[in-house]
Specification:
The chain is mainly α. The protein contains eight helices and no strands.
């Protein structure tokens, strides 16, 4: 079956994208600029741990910085869930609950890694390296979207 450009365009036009992610981002940026500042701050603790990775305060500072960034991301997640996902019923409620646990595990794992630095700096750095690798795996929302496709 061959789709004509007119048919394809009308199909795309008829399927409105909800929510408006540009509006969502601008709303969030105006309400919560701290989240954007956290992301912009990440290169500083990363450079510190690269230069002084054997120093306990630097390793703890790195973990706390990324944990704060993770909590800022969670504020964004809760905002999106409350304002768009629940209101528009875009994702099943059980999936939202599982995804919330998934997003909370990010900053909590960085807090655990920062605390682990007091026991072993090397183990803490290994955990810092494993946390982003863990998040490369598909999340619960990705799985739901793949099932719907």
């Amino acid at each position: 079956m061959k789709l004509s450009p007119d048919k394809l365009f009308s199909d795309l036009k008829s399927k409105s994208l909800k929510p408006n992610y540009g509006k969502l981002f601008s709303d969030f940026a105006s309400y919560f600029p701290t989240g954007l500042m956290c992301v912009a701050f990440i290169p500083y603790p990363t450079a510190l741990i690269g230069e002084y990775g054997s120093s306990l305060p630097v390793v703890v500072f790195y973990g706390l910085s990324l944990a704060i960034t993770g909590f800022a991301y969670n504020v964004l997640w809760f905002y999106v869930v409350r304002r768009y996902i629940k209101a528009e019923k875009l994702i099943h409620q059980k999936v939202v609950q599982k995804a919330t646990i998934w997003t909370l595990s990010y900053p909590i794992s960085y807090l655990v890694a920062a605390g682990l630095a007091f026991i072993s700096i090397n183990l803490s750095i290994i955990l810092y390296a494993l946390i982003p690798a863990f998040y490369l795996l598909p999340g619960i929302i990705d799985e739901q979207l793949m099932e719907q496709a």
